[in-house]
Sequence to fold (145 residues):
Amino acid sequence: MTLTVAPGHVGDLAQVADALAVSPQVALVTAAGKRVKLPDELLEVLSTVAHALSDGQEILVATKDSYLTAQEAADYLGVSRPTMIRILDLGQVPYERPNSHRRIKLADLAKFKAERETRRKALDGLLAMSDEMSQYDTDSFVRTR
Fold:
């Protein structure tokens, strides 16, 4: 299951985001007047969504067993579609091709993204160490990310 939501009234969303951040306990009140306390996990999700939407970001809500298109996967990783296709063709992320379109499981994509971040942090650490030891000329190095 996936659901994509575009931002709406930013002012209203900002008020909701602020209210969720300030109040440790939030409850839903039904039309019949019954109060239901929101679990912490749901409160965290709602707070994250409200903040992102109030910042003008589009939200994708999906279960881990959902499948994404190549374009949705590229958007999730923050890369272009051709780069995503290259990642898939290199076998770095498993995918299915039930017809002419590639389908990528969100769980596999999340795992790849976490591993990529871990590698990036390790490389940043090595660069910092090298810089401290003056073994690497960073004056001519242009960081793009």
Q: What stands out?
A: The chain has a mean pLDDT of 83. The beta strands are 2-5, 27-29, 35-37, 59-62, 67-68, 104-105. The chain has two domains: 2-62, 67-132. Residues 2-62 form one domain.
